[in-house]
Amino acid sequence: MKAIAVRPGAGSPEVVDQPVPEPAPGEALVRICRVGIDGTDYEVIEGSHGGVPDGDDRLILGHEAVGVVEDANGTALEHGQYVVPTVRRPPAGVETNDYFERGEPDMAPEGEYVERGIVGAHGFMAEYITSPYDCLVPISAELAPWGFLVEPISITEKAIEHARATRSAFDWRPESALVLGTGSLGLLTVAMFAETLDYERIYCLGRTDRPHPTIDIVERLGATYIDSRETPVSEIAGAYEPMDVVYEATGYAKHAFESIDALAPNGVAALLGVPTDWSFEVDGGRLHRDLVLHNKALVGSVNSNRRHFERAVDTLSSLPDWVLESVVTGVHGLEAVDRAFPEATARVAAAGRASTAASDDDTTIKTAVEFTGI
Amino acid sequence: MKAIAVRPGAGSPEVVDQPVPEPAPGEALVRICRVGIDGTDYEVIEGSHGGVPDGDDRLILGHEAVGVVEDANGTALEHGQYVVPTVRRPPAGVETNDYFERGEPDMAPEGEYVERGIVGAHGFMAEYITSPYDCLVPISAELAPWGFLVEPISITEKAIEHARATRSAFDWRPESALVLGTGSLGLLTVAMFAETLDYERIYCLGRTDRPHPTIDIVERLGATYIDSRETPVSEIAGAYEPMDVVYEATGYAKHAFESIDALAPNGVAALLGVPTDWSFEVDGGRLHRDLVLHNKALVGSVNSNRRHFERAVDTLSSLPDWVLESVVTGVHGLEAVDRAFPEATARVAAAGRASTAASDDDTTIKTAVEFTGI
Fold first, then answer.
1. How far is CA A309 from the centre of its chain?
2. Are B363 and B24 in contact (CB under 8 A)?
3. Strand partners, A227
4. Most confident region among A191-200, A253-262, B46-55 by mean pLDDT
5. Under an 8 A CB cutoff, do A285 and B170 touch?
6. Which of A296, B9, B95, B164 is the most buried (most CB within 10 A)?
7. CA distances (Å), B16 to each of A368, B11, B127, B214, B356, in order?
8. Which of B254, B276, B302 is closest, CB to CB, to A292?
């Protein structure tokens, strides 16, 4: 079968031939339909994040997948059921651990998990995968074409669950919410805030000139677009309003600290970005005092568990089609795999090893690879 | 009647004569027994925090009080009942607001409250006070001598409630806890961690040479003393162990940021200090990434509400007498009020206006003023 793999640091993925995997007892065989691509995939391609399984020299990519059960292999699943696989598995050679037994692999510390398609385990960009049946979350045939968005939505489900938990000791009534970032995760989160949560006023920070499709999506969702070049995060509270919720999806470290300034009293900032080391000056006294005197909270959040995937399926069903159609700017077959990875292709082109198919298309928001039509 | 007041910035408090207050309907008249003194009182005395009531030029101090009902004035209280008053009240001229109606004045933003003895309302350092009866929390006669510790303990009750809330979205099993600071609040928190919470391993950071009574208290409680001059907060995880809980009671802003380094995966730091502005460099990229990839949380906490006071009364009853006797290093009558405020007295002495009674006694931990014996 065909699969998309990378030698970390190689700069671009390649299509490879692999044997079709055999499901072990308790596993199902899944025929993959579509796999989404996000920033983490590019980090793995670059070699700045993740790693190959022990003993391998390349990694099959992909952690945002939707497929269909080809062989239930005696498990509780049924042939033909569409499913979305979760991402974390116990480390190689380990059957389970406390975190997996509690259904909370998203809370496992480093060394207690591998992540399919990211670190230590092959991913889902292949014609077939196997997976323990309880790591496969059912999704309806109707939603299946968008099923590769379940994983990114589940990331926000978890972050918002944790952010709300931080405010659960009192009667919290959030009205205003700010999303930092206009990538696909930021835009899906703006859509969730507008469509499934009760935030009355939603803002989204980007740094793109008008006109731009991301700004169109923000505004069509009824949210206010804020250009970070005109209004830095630290000035948003004064220029717009203090925010009950900040959702950081930029990976820009100053935003994590400036989000304290952006928060209203009793507000919470959920941090999701994964920056590299970067030292800079902060008014730490003021930020510390502000956190304390105004009961503010910061909460970091990574990964998600089955519960969040199930909630994400519900959320996906309540997002308008136009949002999904606008956010997903390309679904490409294996024959056009370079178009599915425009950033990698652009980098390769920039490095002088140009592929004629490459184009640095800055209107690309979210792409996916299609292995089988739905 | 006698009261202890300050003209903010004057540098030391003074004993003044005041008319005995008359309880309004719904208020009781309370004869004050003892009032504790903490860092906030010194900030008010210095003029760096708080403020007088509108139209006044001085503030009666005191927010950590215990007294006895002198005149229940038709309320549900009884004559002779020992009580501890809560601190926040609605702003002058305002009967209530949403936060007070919900019983959560501790979550009110600036402008929506005054604080007795701190900002905008006279405090409890007087022979008599009046208070709405529902702001008076009953305490037994047996505990009343220590009743002035209920307010500081309630501050920790709230902080811990909020810290636990941040971790309520998953199955959190904290074992290790680190208290930053060996002031009275830090020591009472170490005692709570040891006596009423389930932390298996407790650490307390100070910067005092041995032998010292604060270190003795820490160690007698079974906790490990860490000298910050030998082990900075950012190195505690490596030198001792990563902490599931960090409780910051130093007001030293770098500790707020270094607490991220001290935390274990899935840990939470509760911040309580109130520093002044101070800019310094942080590796913001590393701290941001660490918060995210390890699901860490920071939560600021200020003040407390009646529920926390009630819980603090329970906690107080379960702390060993030796802890209370060791933490409270002096209870002084009005005739020796300068001994109750050793830091103010020491500062005045240092400024060349020496009071012969002054001594900068570095074994002082917690003092109180006594108005009436119990």
1. 12
2. no
3. A206
4. A253-262
5. no
6. A296
7. 77, 16, 11, 34, 21
8. B302
Is A301 marked within a binding site? yes
Amino acid letter for position A235:
E
Answer positive or negative: Cα dihedral of A29, A33, A37, A42.
positive
- Contact between A299 and B297 using a beta-carbon 8 Å cutoff: yes
Report the mean per-residue pLDDT for chain A: 94
* pLDDT at A359 (0 to 100): 40
Residues B312-349 pLDDT 10s = 999 999 999 999 999 999 999 999 999 999 887 666 66
For residue B286, give the nearest of A110, A257, A277 by CB distance: A277
* Residue among A1, A6, A152 at smallest CA distance from A65: A152
- Within a 10 A sphere around the Cβ of B94, how many other Cβ atoms? 12
The phi-psi region of residue B214 (left if phi > 0; otherwise alpha if psi is between -120 and 50; otherwise beta) is alpha
Q: What span, in angstroms and rounded, lies between the C-alpha atoms of B16 and B6? A: 9
Nearest CA-CA partner of B177 in B251, B268, B239, B253: B268
3-state SS of A204-217 is: EEECCCCCCHHHHH
Report the C-alpha gap between A139 and A81 in whole angstroms: 8
Tokens representing B250? Answer: 């130093």
Contact A300 B294 (CB under 8 A): yes
Least confident residue range of A159-168, A262-271, A344-353, B242-251: A344-353
Tokens, residue A319: 């997002």
CB burial readout A194-229, b (16+ within 10 A) else e: bebeebebbbbbbebeeeebbbebbeebebebbebe
Predicted confidence (pLDDT) at residue A347 exceeds the cutoff of 70:
no
Contact indicator for B30, B82 with CB cutoff of 8 Å:
no
Q: Tokens for B335? A: 């005739």
Test the B interface: residue of A99, A101, A155, A166 with most B CBs within 10 Å: A166
Closest CA to B28 of B77, B66, B67, B92: B77
A305 is in an annotated binding site: no
CA distance B98 to chain A (A): 10
Query: Which ipTM was obtained for this model?
Result: 0.96
pLDDT > 90: what percent of chain B?
Answer: 91
A335: exposed, middle or buried (C-beta count within 10 Å: 0-12, 13-18, 19+)? exposed
**Cβ count within 10 A of residue A43:** 17
pLDDT in tens, A355-364: 444 344 589 9
Contact B262, B239 (CB under 8 A): no
Select from B265, B274, B282 the Cβ nearest to the Cβ of A279.
B282
Number of CB pairs < 8 Å for A and B?
199
Residues A230-284: pLDDT tens digits? 999 999 999 999 999 999 999 999 999 999 999 999 999 999 999 999 999 999 9
Distance from CA of B372 to the nearest CA of A (A): 33
Please say whether the beta carbons of B38 and B50 come within 8 A: no
Q: Whole-angstrom Cα distance, residue B349 to residue B290?
A: 47
When pLDDT is averaged across residues B176-185 and rounded to a whole number, the result is 98
Could you give the percent of chain A with pLDDT greater than 90? Answer: 91
Q: Exposed, middle or buried: residue A172 (CB in 10 Å: 0-12, 13-18, 19+)?
A: middle
Q: Residue A279 annotated as binding?
A: no
Q: Looking at the predicted structure, is the pLDDT value of residue B70 above 80?
A: yes
**pLDDT of A237:** 98
Cis peptide before B211 (omega within 30 of 0): yes
Q: Of A160, A288, A174, A296, which is closest to residue B299 (Cα–Cα)?
A: A296
Tell me how close the Cα of A305 comes to any Cα of chain B, in angstroms.
11
Q: Is B280 close to A282, i.e. CB distance below 8 A? A: yes
pLDDT digits (tens, 9 = 90+) for B289-317: 999 999 999 999 999 999 999 999 999 99
pLDDT for position B361: 55
